[in-house]
Backbone:
């Protein structure tokens, strides 16, 4: 075979992601990744593609790969998926139905209107809810739901029990720096909207740029900078069409409510900058962000907020300041230390979050 083979197919395939095999999986248009890896047999490469309901895609051969220490006779291919808004919407509906069925089976049938996305090291609220009878569903068991692999992101949704009436907690999130497309990163937000969510709280661990932001503080986001050079709203559209949205994604009303919550934590407001990752920023980049007006920096939250706002969801963002940003201290940044800092304030953060949910009208405090 000379040169790259590019062929459009419709096929049921076995998917490979980071050398993890999911036998018998169907190529999912609903994931809309920019690139995934697919395993074909040589007969498939010759053109013997089975007729099925799989989506169209372009196939470019790659190198062979070994499984369990043995060389595979199949070839690995990079597949560029066609991003179909229709297929994505259908997959959101399927995922929402899967969650509803699971929750109904467990006796949870109350309407949902508030969701919280829990960032790195901030999983304690979900753990506490689960100890008080909440029901959880793993992302991996839901069609189309991207599964995060970053330490500290469990990858499940929890609701019900004594603490989560009308509220759902998303324990972990997929990140752009993990290789997920922005369509995948924001898929959970579209799912939450389909489940009836009208208020979304996104949380994250962030590095402090402004000198008054110290590890252990919270910063409520009042604006953002995005250094990711594409928009999560980008899609095929008519020539000249511009997607209009609010001046800011971040709700002033929710910010005002959050600032009134009693807590021993120090609460600030400020501008959050999203960098693409996965590497931490350089000191020069931090100086640039400071000059642009950023107060804290992280690698998430902005795409989710943009899509949620476009869907009519009221959004609030909370950054847990876990470390000084690069170049602002004598110590190198370490992900485990960031997790340890977040874990150190997890208890008080959980209490603050519970009070915030109460203030938003979900339930009386216990």
Residues:
């Amino acid at each position: 075979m000379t040169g790259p083979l590019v062929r459009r197919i419709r096929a049921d395939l076995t998917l490979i992601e980071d050398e993890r095999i999911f036998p018998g999986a169907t190529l999912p248009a609903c994931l809309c990744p920019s690139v995934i890896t697919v395993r074909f047999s040589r007969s498939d490469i010759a053109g013997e593609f089975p007729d099925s309901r799989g989506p169209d895609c372009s196939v470019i051969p790659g190198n062979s790969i070994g499984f369990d220490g043995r060389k595979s006779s199949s070839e690995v291919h990079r597949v560029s998926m066609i991003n179909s808004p229709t297929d994505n919407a259908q997959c959101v509906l399927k995922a929402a139905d899967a969650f509803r069925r699971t929750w109904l089976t467990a006796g949870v049938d109350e309407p949902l209107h508030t969701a919280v996305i829990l960032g790195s090291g901030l999983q304690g609220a979900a753990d506490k809810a689960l100890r008080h009878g909440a029901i959880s569903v793993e992302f991996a068991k839901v069609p189309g739901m991207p599964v995060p692999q970053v330490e500290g992101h469990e990858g499940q949704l929890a609701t019900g029990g004594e603490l989560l009436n009308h509220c759902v907690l998303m324990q972990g999130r997929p990140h752009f720096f993990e290789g997920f497309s922005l369509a995948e990163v924001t898929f959970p937000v579209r799912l939450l909207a389909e489940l009836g969510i009208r208020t979304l709280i996104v949380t994250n661990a962030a590095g402090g740029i402004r000198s008054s932001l110290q590890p252990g503080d919270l910063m409520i986001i009042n604006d953002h900078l995005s250094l990711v050079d594409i928009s999560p709203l980008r899609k095929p559209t008519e020539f000249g069409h511009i997607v209009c949205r609010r001046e800011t994604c971040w709700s002033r009303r929710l910010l005002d409510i959050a600032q009134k919550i009693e807590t021993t934590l120090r609460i600030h407001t400020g501008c959050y900058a999203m960098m693409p990752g996965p590497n931490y920023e350089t000191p020069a980049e931090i100086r640039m962000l400071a000059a642009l007006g950023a107060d804290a920096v992280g690698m998430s939250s902005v795409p989710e907020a943009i899509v949620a706002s476009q869907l009519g969801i009221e959004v609030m963002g909370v950054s847990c300041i876990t470390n000084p940003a690069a170049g602002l201290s004598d110590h190198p940044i370490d992900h485990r230390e960031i997790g340890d800092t977040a874990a150190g304030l997890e208890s008080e953060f959980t209490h603050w979050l519970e009070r915030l949910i109460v203030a938003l009208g979900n339930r009386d405090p216990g």
Notes: Residues 1-86, 237-241, 362-366 have pLDDT under 50 and may be disordered. The longest strand covers residues 314-324. The longest helix spans residues 85-105.
